[in-house]
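Regression test case RT-17, inverse folding.

Input:
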């Protein structure tokens, strides 16, 4: 065998080795288990008509889910609160129980403005304590948003609810979002008659709450 034949033979052997290694590598990759992915963020929202929507085409929990790739369930009902119960069976304690059936990662309590009409602030404190404790005992994360308002000065009835719920949240060691100082909304982001957030207002709520969740809760 001359020198050229030897060189060609070695080249063919090297090429065959490379091809063989590529086949082995491709087979290994094909059979390798997929890389683990982070579980989806699942959030259940408890709230009142500001979250359930009043003449809205879309509400902030839905927008928040779409914009962040989260799974968000909305259990809010009109005129509900920590103490306020709407038409019955609508208070936040009941909403929390319904939300827990889905085993979300986070239960988000959006303080309602209907509690501002409750004469005894102690009832709001008791309701907030019960709702937060119920989530903590079951092992989900809980985060609380204070009542929404759109102007200053904030009515004292709304301020009393904010103070009561904030105190309960702080004592429980759970995150609390202040929606009053400064107001989360402005008058131009409300429906006529200030009955609730407009679609533009719902959009603002979605973005601000999502930013807070990423920074303070989903860590």
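Golden output:
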């Amino acid at each position: 065998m001359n020198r050229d034949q030897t060189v060609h033979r070695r080249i063919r052997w090297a090429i065959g080795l490379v091809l063989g290694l590529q086949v082995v590598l491709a087979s290994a990759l094909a059979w390798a288990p997929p890389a683990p992915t982070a579980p989806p963020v699942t959030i259940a929202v408890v709230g009142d008509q500001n979250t359930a929507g009043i003449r809205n085409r879309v509400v902030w929990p839905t927008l928040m889910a779409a914009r962040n790739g989260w799974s968000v369930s909305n259990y809010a009902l009109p005129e509900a609160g920590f103490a306020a119960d709407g038409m019955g069976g609508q208070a936040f304690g009941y909403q929390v129980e319904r939300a827990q059936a889905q085993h979300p990662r986070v239960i988000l309590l959006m303080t309602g403005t209907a509690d501002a009409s409750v004469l005894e602030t102690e009832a709001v404190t008791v309701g907030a304590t019960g709702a937060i404790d119920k989530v903590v005992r079951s092992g989900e994360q809980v985060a609380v948003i204070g009542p929404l308002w759109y102007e200053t000065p904030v009515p004292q009835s709304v301020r009393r609810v904010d103070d009561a719920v904030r105190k309960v949240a702080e004592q429980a060691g759970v995150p609390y979002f202040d929606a009053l100082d400064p107001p989360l909304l402005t008058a131009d982001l409300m429906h006529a008659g200030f009955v609730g957030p407009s679609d533009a207002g719902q959009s603002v709520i979605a973005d601000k709450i999502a930013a807070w969740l990423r920074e303070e809760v989903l860590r």
